[in-house]
Automatic annotation (TrEMBL), chain A:
Cofactor annotation: [4Fe-4S] cluster
SUPFAM superfamilies: Prismane protein-like
Molecular functions per Gene Ontology: 4 iron, 4 sulfur cluster binding; anaerobic carbon-monoxide dehydrogenase activity; hydroxylamine reductase activity; nickel cation binding; peroxidase activity
Enzyme class: oxidoreductase
Residues the record lists as binding [Ni-4Fe-4S] cluster: 256, 292, 336, 476, 507, 548
Name the UniProt record assigns to this protein: Carbon monoxide dehydrogenase
Phylogenetic classification of the source organism: Bacteria, Bacillati, Bacillota, Clostridia, Peptostreptococcales
Record GO biological process: generation of precursor metabolites and energy; response to hydrogen peroxide
Superkingdom of the source species: Bacteria
Keywords: 4Fe-4S, Iron, Iron-sulfur, Metal-binding, Nickel, Oxidoreductase
Automatic annotation (TrEMBL), chain B:
The name this protein goes by in its record: Nitrate reductase
Record keywords, A-Z: 4Fe-4S, Electron transport, Iron, Iron-sulfur, Metal-binding, Repeat, Transport
Origin superkingdom: Bacteria
Entries under Gene3D superfamilies matching the protein: 3.30.70.20
SUPFAM superfamilies the UniProt entry points to: 4Fe-4S ferredoxins (SSF54862)
Single GO term (MF): 4 iron, 4 sulfur cluster binding
A Pfam short name: Fer4_11
Domain 4Fe-4S ferredoxin-type: from-to ranges: 2-30, 85-114
Signal peptide: none
Length: 656, 150
C-alpha cells in the first residue's frame, strides 16, 4: 500500500513491523506518539495533584505546597500508592477469577490438565486428603479465603509460599499483608484527600501491596493455571505476524485470564464447530496469540497444538495484527486491550466480544464469562464469529444439492448474486514476519527438568563465570523509551553480550521474541562464554517464561537457586529490569521485586522524581530495608553497565 | 527577526512553558525528571497569570522593537541585537538598579528571587539553538514563533 496515513510513526525495535505500520492505511498507537509528544512536566515528576477540587495543584518555586499544604513528597507518594494499589487490584482480580474457575471446575469434576501441578500446590499448602477434585477445591478455597480476609488479618499462605529469610525480613519490617483485596482497599483509602501525608508510611504500604500482588497475583495465578490449562513444556514455536493463517477463521485473544478460554479452546476443534467454519468457507478455527494471554497459550502450546497457531505479538503489536485483515474476531477479557483497536475493528468489520466487564471495549459485545453457562457461551461465540467471518471474508459455501428441484434455480441465483456482490475485506498479511522457531514453554519446572532435575548445572555455570549472572527483563512494552520495544531489545542485547543470561516475561518478551533473540541462532549475539553455553545446550541466550504473570515464575527460579545456595535473594547475582514498564500493574510487580530485595531497573521513572524522599527511599534506603533498589536509566548501554556492575558486586560478595 | 506570539484564548494555564523554561535555564545539567521544581534557583522567565475570569494571561518577553528595558538600562547590560532582534541581558554589566523592571510595559522582567541582584530575562533560548523551549512544550500551541518586520 502506498497511501501512507501519517508517515510519522514511532520507531520499533522490530524494523519489518515498523515499516508495516508506517504503511498502514489506518491510524494506530504508533501514529499517535508524535501528537502526544508534549508531556506535562508536572505530571512526569508526579507533582500534579488532582485529588480535590482545590486542584490541580502543582509544585513550583513560588508554590512549594498545594492549597491543602501537601508538599511534593506527599503529593508524589499519594499518587504512587494510588497507582500501586490499582495495579495490585488488577492482578488480584485475575487470581480471584482463576481460583474461582478452578473451584468451579473441581465442583463439576471437569478436566484437570495439570495433576502434578495440583500435587505441588497441595504440598505447599499442606493439603493431604481428598481425591483430585476435592484437593483442587481445597486449593482454590485456600486462595480465595486468603484474598477475602480483612486487612487486619494476615494471609495464611504467605509464609507457605515465601522463602524463609524473606518471610522473616517482611515480618521484621511489619509488611506482611492482610487480605489482598482489603490491602488494595486500604491503599486507596490511605491516599485519598487529606488522609495520609507521610511519604515513608505510604511507600511501606507499597511494599505490602507488592508482596500480596507477587505471591497471589503472580505466583499463584501461574500455579492455578498450570492445574487448569496444563504445565508448560519446552518446544519451539512460530512467532510474529506469520502465525496468522488466512485459510482459517482467526480469533485474536487479548488479556490475562487464560482460564476463561478453557471451554472455548476445546469447542473450537470439535467436528460440529469445524463444520460451521467449513460451511462459511474456512478450514476451521485458529486462536492467534496477542498480549499476555497469547504468551501464556504459547507457553502451554504443547497442549493446544491444533487450535493455537502461535503468538503474533505484544500489546503494541495488536493493532498491526488486526490491520492484516485476517483476524475475524477479538475476544478480550483483561488489560492490554488497547482502545485503539476499536476503530480498526469497526473499519475491518472485526467482531469484538468482551468476556469480562472490567475490560469492556466501547464497541464490543459483552458476554461476561459465566462458568455455569460456559458451553452455551462457547457455542454462541462460535456462531457470532462465523457470522463475522461470512460478512468479512465468506462466500456462501453450503451444499444445496439436495434442495427441492423447484427452489434450486432460485437458491442458485441468490447464492450467485450474494457471492458476486460480496466483497472480501482486503488482506495485508506479513507472512515473513517473526520467526518459526522461538524457544518457548520455559517455566521453573520445565527449565529445571531440562537441567536434569536440579539447579546445580546452572549454578555451576554461574560459579564458573560462564554465565556472569541472570537478568530478568520483564514487564510491558511501551512506545516511549526509544520507541516500541527499543529499550527492552537493546538492553537485552547488551546484557547477553556481557555473558548475562536473560530471562523474560510479559509483553517485553513478545517484542524480544519477534526480534529473534529467542531462537538458538541468537547465541551468536551473546558474549563468548554465554555463547558457548548456549551452543552446547542448543538454547537461546534469552529464555521466555511467557506472560507478565510469569514474573512470578522467574522469582520462583530465583528463590530455588537461593535456597540451594543457602543465601538470601538479595545476595544472588540477579537483577530485574522492567525497562519499558507501562502500567500501574507493572508498578505493583516492581514493588514485589523490591520486597524480594532485588535491584530493579526502569527505563522511565514512575512519576516519582518530584519527591526527594521517594527518590531517596526507592533508590537508596531500600537497600538497607529489603535489599532492593530502583535504578532509573533510559540508555541501554549505560543501564547494562550499571546492572553488570551490581552483578559483579554480588559475585564478589559471594566469593565467586 | 523572530518573536514569540501568544493567543491567550488557547492557554489552559498548564504551566508547561514555565517548567520548560526552568529546565532550559537550570544550572546543573539533567532531564526534566530531575529538575528541582521547588528550588528558587530554577526560576522561570515566563509567567502565567489568571485573568480572574477563568482565563489565563501568558506573559512572555516581547523582545520589543523599541525596548523600554534597553532604553532605561544605564549600565548597558541590556541590548537589542540589530540582526536577530533578540533583547539580551549581560549579568556582568548589570548594576541591579531594576529600572528595566519598572519600565517593562508587560511586567515580564523581575529581579531574581534568591539574591535580588540580577534580572530574570528571556534569552529566546539562543544557547539552545534559538528555538524557545516554552514554545516547544506548549501542548495547546497557544504560543508560537513568528518572523516579524523589524
Amino acid at each position: 500500500m502506498n497511501n501512507c496515513f501519517g508517515c510519522n510513526t514511532c520507531k520499533s525495535a522490530d524494523k519489518p513491523l515498523e515499516e508495516f505500520i508506517a504503511n498502514l492505511p489506518m491510524e494506530t498507537s504508533h501514529h499517535r506518539v508524535e501528537s502526544q509528544s508534549t508531556k506535562c512536566n508536572f505530571g512526569l515528576q508526579g507533582v500534579c495533584c488532582r485529588l480535590c477540587s482545590n486542584g490541580p495543584c502543582r509544585i513550583t518555586p513560588d508554590a512549594p505546597r498545594g492549597i491543602c499544604g501537601a508538599n511534593a513528597d506527599t503529593i508524589v507518594t499519594r499518587n504512587f500508592l494510588r497507582a500501586v494499589a490499582a495495579g495490585s487490584g488488577c492482578y488480584i482480580h485475575v487470581v480471584e477469577n482463576t481460583a474461582l474457575n478452578l473451584k468451579n471446575t473441581a465442583l463439576v469434576k471437569g478436566k484437570i490438565k495439570g495433576e502434578r501441578a495440583l500435587e505441588r500446590l497441595c504440598s505447599i499448602f499442606g493439603i493431604t486428603s481428598g481425591d483430585l477434585y476435592e484437593k483442587a477445591e481445597k486449593v482454590a478455597d485456600a486462595v480465595l479465603s486468603d484474598l477475602y480476609k480483612p486487612e487486619y488479618v494476615k494471609m495464611e499462605l504467605v509464609e507457605k509460599l515465601s522463602y524463609k529469610p524473606r518471610f522473616d525480613k517482611w515480618k521484621e519490617l511489619g509488611i506482611l499483608p492482610g487480605g489482598a483485596k482489603s490491602e488494595v482497599f486500604k491503599g486507596v483509602v490511605k491516599c485519598s484527600t487529606n488522609l495520609n501525608s507521610d511519604p515513608v508510611d505510604m511507600l511501606i504500604d507499597c511494599l505490602r501491596l507488592g508482596i500480596s500482588t507477587g505471591l497471589y497475583g503472580l505466583v499463584l495465578t501461574n500455579l492455578l493455571n498450570d492445574v487448569l490449562l496444563g504445565e508448560p513444556e519446552l518446544r519451539t514455536a512460530p512467532v510474529g505476524l506469520r502465525v496468522i493463517d488466512p485459510d482459517y477463521i482467526n480469533i485474536m485473544i487479548t488479556g490475562h485470564q487464560h482460564s476463561m478460554f478453557v471451554d472455548l479452546q476445546e469447542r473450537l476443534i470439535q467436528p460440529d464447530a469445524v463444520a460451521k467454519a467449513k460451511a462459511a468457507g474456512a478450514k476451521g478455527f485458529k486462536l492467534v496469540g496477542c498480549t499476555c494471554v497469547g504468551q501464556d497459550l504459547q507457553l502451554r502450546g504443547s497442549h493446544y497444538k491444533e487450535v493455537f497457531n502461535g503468538h503474533a505479538g505484544n500489546n503494541y503489536t495488536s493493532e498491526a495484527i488486526l490491520a492484516t485483515g485476517a483476524i475475524d474476531a477479538v475476544l478480550s477479557e483483561f488489560n492490554c486491550t488497547l482502545p485503539g483497536i476499536e476503530p480498526i475493528c469497526e473499519e475491518l468489520k472485526i467482531k469484538q466480544i468482551c468476556l469480562d466487564s472490567v475490560a469492556k471495549k466501547a464497541n464490543a459485545e459483552i458476554m461476561e464469562f459465566d462458568f455455569a453457562k460456559r458451553e452455551q457461551q462457547s457455542n454462541e461465540i462460535i456462531d457470532k464469529i462465523v457470522g463475522a467471518y461470512i460478512l468479512r471474508r465468506g462466500k456462501i459455501n453450503v451444499d444445496f444439492s439436495n434442495a427441492d428441484k423447484e427452489w434450486k434455480p432460485l437458491i442458485d441465483m441468490l447464492v450467485g448474486a450474494y457471492n458476486s456482490i460480496h466483497q472480501d475485506v482486503n488482506l495485508n498479511l506479513m507472512p515473513e514476519h517473526g520467526n518459526d522457531h522461538t524457544l518457548t514453554g520455559v517455566s521453573e519446572v520445565s527449565l529445571k527438568e531440562f537441567l536434569g532435575g536440579k539447579w546445580k548445572p546452572l549454578i555451576d555455570l554461574i560459579v564458573a563465570g560462564d554465565i556472569k549472572g541472570i537478568a530478568g527483563v520483564v514487564g510491558c512494552s511501551n512506545l516511549t523509551a526509544g520507541g516500541h520495544d527499543v529499550l527492552s531489545v537493546e538492553l537485552t542485547k547488551e546484557l547477553i553480550a556481557k555473558d548475562i543470561l536473560v530471562l523474560t516475561a510479559g509483553c517485553s518478551s513478545g517484542g524480544i521474541e519477534n526480534c529473534g533473540l529467542m531462537t538458538p541462532e541468537a547465541a551468536k549475539l551473546a558474549g563468548p562464554k554465554l555463547r558457548a553455553v548456549c551452543e552446547k545446550l542448543g538454547i537461546p541466550p534469552v529464555l521466555n517464561f511467557g506472560p507478565c504473570l510469569a514474573i512470578g515464575r522467574l522469582e520462583i527460579v530465583a528463590t530455588e537457586i537461593a535456597e540451594e545456595l543457602g543465601v538470601d535473594l538479595p545476595q544472588l547475582p540477579l537483577v530485574l529490569s522492567a525497562a519499558q514498564w507501562l502500567e500501574e500493574q507493572a508498578l505493583a510487580d516492581g514493588a514485589y521485586g523490591l520486597a524480594l530485595g532485588l535491584p530493579l531497573h526502569l527505563g522511565l521513572p514512575p512519576f516519582i522524581t518530584g519527591s526527594k524522599v521517594a527518590v531517596k527511599v526507592l533508590t537508596e534506603d531500600m537497600k538497607q530495608l529489603t535489599g532492593g533498589q530502583v535504578i532509573i536509566n533510559p540508555d541501554a548501554k549505560e543501564s547494562a553497565d550499571i546492572l553488570e556492575k551490581i552483578i559483579m558486586e554480588k559475585r564478589s560478595a559471594l566469593n565467586i | 527577526m523572530k518573536r514569540i506570539m501568544i493567543d491567550y484564548m488557547k492557554c489552559d494555564g498548564c504551566k508547561n512553558c514555565t517548567a520548560a523554561c526552568m529546565q532550559a535555564h537550570r544550572e546543573e545539567q539533567g532531564t526534566i525528571y530531575d529538575l528541582d521544581l521547588t528550588d528558587p534557583k530554577n526560576e522561570s522567565r515566563n509567567h502565567i497569570l489568571s485573568d480572574g475570569r477563568g482565563g489565563y494571561r501568558p506573559i512572555f518577553c516581547r523582545h520589543c522593537d523599541l525596548p523600554e528595558c534597553v532604553m532605561s538600562c544605564m549600565s548597558g547590560a541590556l541590548s537589542k541585537d540589530s540582526v536577530t532582534g533578540v533583547v539580551s541581558y549581560d549579568v556582568n554589566k548589570c548594576g541591579s538598579c531594576f529600572m528595566c523592571v519598572m519600565n517593562c510595559p508587560y511586567g515580564v522582567l523581575k529581579p531574581d528571587t534568591l539574591t535580588r541582584t540580577k534580572v530574570i530575562k528571556c534569552d529566546f533560548c539562543m544557547e539552545k539553538g534559538g528555538e524557545p523551549s516554552c514554545v516547544k512544550n506548549c501542548p495547546k500551541k497557544a504560543i508560537w514563533v513568528e518572523e516579524v518586520q523589524a
